[in-house]
């Protein structure tokens, strides 16, 4: 087997598990909250902890792989992800689950950050768009499974089962990656890690997320939320200043002088904001307000995820032929239409379909 296909299949396992665990907790939030006796602020951080570590980790892990090698970090990431999944399944309260999700998210960051890099190293440029498209399809398949299979497991076997299923797959993925992957990139051991930049970025993102949590959940914490927002702005400014002055920055800001690179990242940020908001709010609405079970709510997300999975490889192939600019522009325009339609949506009065939600107000 050509090595490019080896890399694509090995990284597919990591992306599959990352996609599953990105969505599966979102669809299971009401069940997890009821089981652990957690309030809404706590249970939201069960999803935030994973996303936070993936966000921080993408930048940090990317730098560490340049220094120590991609394969070594990828293998370690699979092991950490597996251990984190096992710990999540044993959580006895919301705080424990949040902490173990930080661990799991750290492993997921190592997988996600390295997947594209490993594929890029092993794939010819003319086939790169197709290979990355396949990689993203697998991630979306994981999202579908997280919303459907995950919903079924939660409804039939309890929320802990969604973490149990990660353990055998994680062990297999760790061993398979160790046996099949080989290092083809050159590491840069002589370069230094930008610790101060890492601290500033971590403080900035953590303060921003906490500000959003406290500012939206309880008006009594509004002053505290504003203070956290100011801390976020100051620490982010410090991060930018640090990256400009060090020889080995965590993030090379000169990359953003490329308009295509900058526009692509802004587009990705806007897409993530819109899709994340829709997924979380609709999931809570369907289960908490409308009274649907986890499986029923997950099935209602299938059209969105199927569209991702089918359009992904086609878009990758067209990108190889025509370039990404036009496709990205069309995609953002298409995404804006349903988001605007959600804005004007008014739910119908509750018809009493489910007794579990008889006291809920829309």
Give a written overview of the molecule.
Helices cover 78% and strands 0% of the residues. It is mainly alpha-helical and 362 residues long. The protein has two domains: 3-188 and 247-347, MFS general substrate transporter like domains (Growth Hormone, Chain: A, Up-down Bundle), CATH 1.20.1250.20; 195-245. Helix 1 runs antiparallel to helix 2 and helix 1 (3-36) packs antiparallel against helix 4 (94-122).
List keywords for this structure.
362 residues, mainly alpha, Growth Hormone, Chain: A, 2 domains, 78% helix, 0% strand, disordered C terminus
Q: Main beta sheet: strand number and arrangement?
A: none
Number of strands: 0
State the fourth-level CATH superfamily of the largest domain: MFS general substrate transporter like domains
Spans with pLDDT under 50 lasting ≥5 residues?
Answer: 349-362
What are the secondary-structure elements, in order, as H or E?
Answer: HHHHHHHHHHHHHH
Brief write-up:
78% of the residues lie in helices and 0% in strands. The chain has 14 helices and no strands.
Helix and strand topology:
Layout: H1 3-36, H2 40-68, H3 70-89, H4 94-122, H5 128-147, H6 149-157, H7 161-164, H8 166-180, H9 195-217, H10 222-245, H11 259-289, H12 294-299, H13 302-322, H14 325-343
Helix pairs in contact: 1-2, 1-4, 1-5, 1-8, 1-11, 2-3, 2-4, 2-9, 3-4, 3-8, 4-5, 5-13, 9-10, 11-14
């Amino acid at each position: 087997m050509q090595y490019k296909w080896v890399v694509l299949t090995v990284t597919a396992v990591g992306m599959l598990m990352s996609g599953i665990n990105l969505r599966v907790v979102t669809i299971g939030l009401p069940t997890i909250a009821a089981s652990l006796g957690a309030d809404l602020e706590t249970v939201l951080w069960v999803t935030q902890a994973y996303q936070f570590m993936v966000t921080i980790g993408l930048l940090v892990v990317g730098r560490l792989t340049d220094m120590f090698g991609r394969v070594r970090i990828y293998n370690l990431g699979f092991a950490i992800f597996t251990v984190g999944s096992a710990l999540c399944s044993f959580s006895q309260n919301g705080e424990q689950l949040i902490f173990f999700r930080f661990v799991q998210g750290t492993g997921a960051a190592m997988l996600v950050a390295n997947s594209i890099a490993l594929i890029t190293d092993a794939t010819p440029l003319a086939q790169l768009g197709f290979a990355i498209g396949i990689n993203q399809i697998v991630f979306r398949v994981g999202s579908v499974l997280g919303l459907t299979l995950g919903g079924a497991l939660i409804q039939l076997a309890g929320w802990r089962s969604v973490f149990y299923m990660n353990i055998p797959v994680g062990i297999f993925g760790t061993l398979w990656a160790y046996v099949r992957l080989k290092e083809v990139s050159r590491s840069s051991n002589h370069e230094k890690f930008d610790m101060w930049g890492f601290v500033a970025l971590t403080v900035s993102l953590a303060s921003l997320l906490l500000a959003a949590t406290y500012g939206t959940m309880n008006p009594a914490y509004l002053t505290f939320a504003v203070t956290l927002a100011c801390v976020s702005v100051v620490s982010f400014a410090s991060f930018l200043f640090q990256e400009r002055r060090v020889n080995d920055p965590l993030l090379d800001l000169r990359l953003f002088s490329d308009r295509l690179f900058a526009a692509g990242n802004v587009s990705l940020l806007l897409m993530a904001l819109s899709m994340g908001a829709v997924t979380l709010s609709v999931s809570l609405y369907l289960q908490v307000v409308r009274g649907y079970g986890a499986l029923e709510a997950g099935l209602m997300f299938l059209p969105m995820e199927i569209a991702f999975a089918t359009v992904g490889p086609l878009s990758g192939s067209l990108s190889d032929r025509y370039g990404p600019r036009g496709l990205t522009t069309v995609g953002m325009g298409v995404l804006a239409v349903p988001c605007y339609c959600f804005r004007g949506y008014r739910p119908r009065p509750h018809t009493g379909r489910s007794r579990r939600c008889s006291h809920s107000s829309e």
